[in-house]
Amino acid sequence: MGGILRVALAGQPNVGKSVIFNQLTGLHQHIGNWPGKTVEKAEGTLHFGGYTVDIIDLPGTYSLSAFTIEERIARDYIALERPDVVVNVVDASSLERNLFLTLQVLELEAPTVVALNQWDVAKKRGLQIDVRKLEESLGVPVVPTVAVTGSGLHRLLERVIEQRGKKSSFPRYGREVEKKVRILEKWLGGLEYPPRWLALKLLEEDEEVEELVGEARPEVLSHVRKMRRELEKTHGERPTVVVAAERYSLAGRIAREVQTAVPAGERLSDRLDRITTSPLTAYPILALVMLSLFLVVFQVGGRFTWFFDSLAGRLEGLHWLPRSALGGILAAASVALPYIIPFYLLLHLLEDSGYLPRAAFAMDAIMHKMGLHGKAFIPAVLGFGCDVPACLGCRIMETEREKTLAAIVVTMIPCAATTAVILGLVGKFVGLPAAVALYVLHFGIVLALGRLLFKLLPGEPVGLIMEMPSYRIPHLPTVLKETWGRTMEFLKIALPLVVLGNVALSALYETGATGALNTVLSPLTVGWLGLPAMAGTVLLLGILRKEMILILLATALGTANFSSVLSTPQMMVLGMVSMLYLPCISTFVALGKEVGWRRAVYVAFLRVLLAIFIGGLLYRALSL
Amino acid sequence: MRERIEEYLEAMVRLKEVGRELTTTNLAKLLKVAPATVTEMLRKLAKGGYVSYSPYREISLTAKGEAAGKKVLRKHRVAEGFLRQMGIPEERVHEHACGLEHHLSDELEEAIHRRVERERLGAPENMLPLTALLEGEEGAVEKIMGGRSACQRLSAMGLTPGTRVKVVKSSLFGGPMLISVRGTTLALGRGIAEKVLVRRD
After folding, report:
1. Where are the domains of chain A?
2. What is the ipTM of this complex?
3. For the whole model, what pTM was predicted?
4. A15, A133, A319, A610 - which has most CB atoms within 10 Å?
């Protein structure tokens, strides 16, 4: 006995899947990305019954269609990587909707165990589930669990070990669909995926499967089309809808057979739900939540920055090479530790408690004007503090398209450091109205860009369809572990890049290459933007940390009284360019992590072009 | 007299909606009357239990007043939608609606609302878009219109033909609506909710 057992956790969002993952794996876990994807992958290990159990937490999805990348990752992992056992985590308090996914897992015919989670919540709601009957209907073991207390998990692992090597059986759908699947499966053998699954996916118009079969067995597609037409004719619905309805009718039938409901009174969760979705109370609550989020992240975080600043002070006097390398480490740490940790902590708390969807619900109409989803409101507000956590927060978006859109727009929001530059330069020496004007102009550009991206980004914009899960108390150990894992993941990517950038730019400075650089850039900086030549290096070094722009400017000019050296248009242009051009290195890393490196480089490049273009126009307009 | 009371309550709900303070001045401006007239009317409203009011303090609507005001405002908007569809020029829509709102019974308002929504979306005669259901109303999904992605998403979330739905909260300021379906609550954007056709109970 013994050996390695690969177990995949599959389940819908908000069913407590990540709590089960954390309870099982403890500290032996690792958060990374799926290869070549911007979707998070969590893996962990545990030892049980003489086995080393490797657990993969698949992305939470409502279905296994090809609609989102998450769904494709989940189904391809089960079908192609063939884990020894799939554990399907199901919310016992919402059985019917969850069984919709369970049936799709069974369609893949992998060995499966169902974890009937939130068993306690279901009981409190007056729902009784006959586990034996459910096992019979599904043909796989079912184990009631309460993830937050860990109850049932031991039994779950026992059943997992028993179940290995035992294929689950394809669900029995209606005769009409069943007949068509049987005909099609004969032609679909020998491919990577199970034939019956391919057959059903073809019937329900699955784009990816259609492409795959189109290449391998093109002759099958004409039959498929004929069958789809038959389905559409008899049901008067798209085949997609017919097959989904088929699954739901089976899920509903099973749920009705195994579950008895005793009416329960209104619970605290329902009352909370009401006050967070009624406009009169929802908006004040949202404002309060955002304010405290902002205060905690930036007040608490801000308290710690002195520590890093004092450490940075000690580096003075070192040789420039170690100084810039250590400075880079400090710069990365001073963003990650004080800001990212509290932010992730609070974001996870909001997410796991169920408040996030309510906030998105309240803000959806307004965010739509910018081409964004209601959920993007929280990262957008945080962007005013620091764009790094704001960008990392965009992972809460549902589809790739929405995440990319939100991340690009959110990282354009002027962060606290950029605001300091605008206020310290334009606000102080030109006047507050001028600073406000720059902001208005900037947000006009961001708004226009958001709408433009909304049109340009690939993928069909599907309106808001969002589950409103019941409120519940977040599981603190899970929240802490996820915060830690994600922060480390960010540091791992950011650290080398920030250090390298710091060293490279310091090298320029120390070797006296800045003069040459300024000359090279002068057609742009002097000729087009109307700035003094030294602005070239100042802006370049500003990428490290935006607040450096002011300090460097004062050093290069030899005075902090900018108005004595720079003209009003020059200060305005410098301010505008500082807002628009490249995000700081840390933000760039966050952007790369959320939307992919190719797109991040693209965005950075376009932002530089935009900054140059707008800056030049502004200079000419102001000099008239 | 009833009409004037409704006019005032509607104006106050409007002010609240856009986040303006409820003051005599703001009310006078919105209703295009003298502040003294407003003050006099406010006393009457306070007597009727619609507002709580004492001079030089901010006015606040009572629950009764707010409900009455919201009802009139809703009728006003339903009337506006109807008038637009009848081809009344935009600049006169508001004026006509101001007259109509006081004479629409609840029953008539509902009937017009449904017809207006249906016309707007070109849905078959016996089906209504989900957006036409009022808060608390129930129905069954009849058909899902729209492209493959929308169909896939909606049916995956359980909105398949025959499914029972209940409107928990209707759309506000063009925002999403909340519906209860298969034991869970879903938020649906207005655009996508319009693609779900239902038969009302």
Report:
1. 3-163, 175-261, 276-424+433-467+474-491, 494-623
2. 0.79
3. 0.76
4. A15
